[in-house]
Amino acid sequence: MKRRISALSLMLTFVSATIFGQSYSDIANLKTGDYDASAAPVVGLWEVLEVIVGDEKLTPTAKWFHLLSDGSMTSGNGWVQNFDGSFNYDRDTKKLLQASQGTVDEFGAFDVTITKDGMVWKRLEMETPVKVTLKKVDKKPLAPWDIIIGNWEVEEQTINSNKDDHAPEDNFVNFSAIYFGWDRRFKKYDETGKRIETGIWHIEAHSNWIWLISDKDNTKTGFDLDLSTKSLKLEHKTELQTLKIKLLRDK
User: Fold this and answer.
1) What dotted CATH number matches 144-249?
2) C-alpha separations of 160 from 60, 113, 157, 238, 248 in Å
3) Which of 89, 95, 167, 232 is placed for a possible disulfide with 40 were both Cys, Cβ 3.0 to 4.6 Å?
4) Which CATH number describes the domain made up of 2-136?
5) What are the distances in angstroms from CA 198 to CA 145, 188, 194, 217?
6) Which residues are CB-neighbours of 142 under 8 A, at least 6 positions away?
7) 56: phi then psi, degrees, rounded to nearest 5
8) In the predicted model, is pLDDT for residue 116 greater than 60?
């Protein structure tokens, strides 16, 4: 499992060192940028719909690739760009090869299939088949960490016991509003508007899960996240009770 996830991580960020089975001209074109991709069908902005590694679905959140007509390409997740490199698409063999800073992807080229709805990339990584399904889009997909930024007010909370012999707490939520900053910092406020807590927030890359880490004592609390542009729902479950918080965006 760890080796598969590691391979997928390399595939998605394209940090590579060596290449096997590629022609010298392909590698030279990638390293020098001497490549005309203007008519290549892979040119455009693409959103990743699904990634399957072996028999596991490991689709990253809001993943995109932008392949330009000059042979350059970028990729990222949501508004976060994490790759800047180049590509070479062979129109005869229908193979797509990427490189970063002149270093070619060590797992080699993808076999590309163009469909009416998008395209599919396939290759082997450490003898494990990898399949990436993409669709062409006009805008980069938004990730939860893009949408959550801003002020949110607590509308309601519910606390239910998970055991018959346990009475849930009366008021687990000690804040009335919370601000999520672009710098991954959060601030909690009471009903008078006084700031009562600060810390770091982090949303997992492959799941709707958010961590709040308090500056006060480094307490780390995880919540299941259900997010839209106007509504935010958080759920925290322990052995004894389940807390649900509904928040609305502060206009």
Assistant:
1) 2.40.128.270
2) 32, 50, 10, 11, 21
3) 89
4) 2.40.128
5) 18, 6, 12, 11
6) 62, 78, 79
7) -110, 140
8) yes
Nearest to residue 122, comparing CAs of 107, 136, 137?
A: 107
Instruction: Measure the CA–CA gap between 231 and 155, rounded to whole angstroms.
Output: 10
Reported as a pLDDT band with limits 50, 70 and 90, residue 166 is low
- Beta carbons within 10 angstroms of residue 131's beta carbon: 16
Q: Tell me the C-alpha distance between 117 and 119, whole Å.
A: 7
Instruction: Give the type of residue at 139.
Output: K
Question: What single-letter amino acid sits at 34?
Answer: D
Query: By C-alpha distance, which of 84, 77, 61, 78 is closest to 15?
Result: 84
- Judge whether 17 and 27 are in contact, CB under 8 Å: no
DSSP conformation class of 7: H
According to DSSP, residue 3 is labeled H
How far is the C-alpha of 76 from the C-alpha of 48, rounded, in Å? 10
Identify the residue with better confidence: 29 or 159: 159
Residue ranges covered by each domain of the chain: 2-136, 144-249
